[in-house]
Task: structure prediction
Amino acid sequence: MDIDVRGPRFGAAVTTVVLAVVLVTGSVWLLAWQTLAFALGAAGGVGRSPYGWAFRRIVRPRIGPPTEFEPPEPPRFAQAVGLVFAAVGLVGLALGPGWLGLAATGAALAAAFLNAAFGYCLGCEAYLLVRRVTVRAQ
Result:
C-alpha cells in the first residue's frame, strides 16, 4: 500500500531539527532518541516511527487528504540508512572518537535536510540504485 509523500518529508523536517540540536549540544540522549526513531521506521515503515505517528494524528488531519503517493520501500530503506549513520554517531559521541560522532550525525543531518527542504531523499535514491543493480545481476 502506497504512502502519503508528505509523511516522510515531515519526518525529515523533524529529524533535521533533532540532528541540528544534537550537533549544537552534543546530546547523546537526543541522538539515542533519533536512533530509536530511525530503528522504528526501518523495522515497521515510516508510519510506525514516532514522527509518522505525529504526522498521521496531528498534521495530516489539518492539511487534508493526500494527492501524491509513493511506495513505502524506499523511505523504509532510507530509515535504515539513517539508522546506521545515527548508530555510528551515537557510538562516536558516547564512546569516541568525537569526530566520528559529529561526522556521522552531520551526514544524517545533510540527508534529512535535503529531503525536508527539497524533497530529495538520498536513501530512497540509494534504494532504487540497489534495486537496479540487483535486478541486472540476476
